[in-house]
Design a protein that fits this description.
Radius of gyration: 16 Å
Distance between the termini: 12 Å
CATH architecture: 3-Layer(aba) Sandwich
CATH class: Alpha Beta
Helix content: 25-40%
Structural class: alpha/beta
Shape: globular
Oligomer: single chain
Largest sheet: 6 strands, mixed
Order of helices and strands: HEEEEEHEEEEHEHH
Bound molecules: zinc ion
Amino acid sequence: MGVNNNSKELFEEQQFKYIDRFKKFKLLLRDVKTNVIKTYKTISKVFDVHDMRPILIKKGNWNQRKISKIDTIIIHQELGIAYPNRSNSFAINEYHRLYNHWVGSAYHFSIDLNRIDLCNNFGDITYGAKNWNERSLHIVVCGDFAAPTHRGCQKPLEIQLILLEFLIHKLLENPALPNLKDWEQVIGHNEATGKINCPGNILTEKIKIWRKINGGN
Ligand SMILES: [Zn+2]
């Protein structure tokens, strides 16, 4: 019973369920211009995807692919780039551009404190996981999380987990991604390559649970 069988109505129901789960959280949102974190009472905008592509500075262009090549979603963590605060799409983009000398952020999406940022086009072949980039969409959860050989100083926020799960559902439902339909196509970076510390213990466990409850392995 993969999520690909869900009707539009079911998806809307699902979205409602997520929003319900959100009601218990105090909403902390980062102001993109000032980087200040504020408290909001409304949840109406939380599930919006924020298009960061016009804001993030790129150095050149990523190689391009046909969208039909995409058949995998790979989940990442930050691994301590921005200790002691959780990082954000800007910081990751600058780190990858200035220190790794890449075009920009290696991730198509970032899950910030509690917002979803779109950072690259689906057609961009970014550098998220060696030998997997032509086929993958990369999502990073901002934070420094414990992993087999990495101490980590933070935990994924419950809000981040909800947003991540929601975003994955949304991508698997997206008719523009014809070969990305099932939770079995969602993996951690550690499952793709030998990067054992990405995305960390909690996210690795979560991905397995989500695959299971959504009909995968
Ligand atoms: Zn990774």
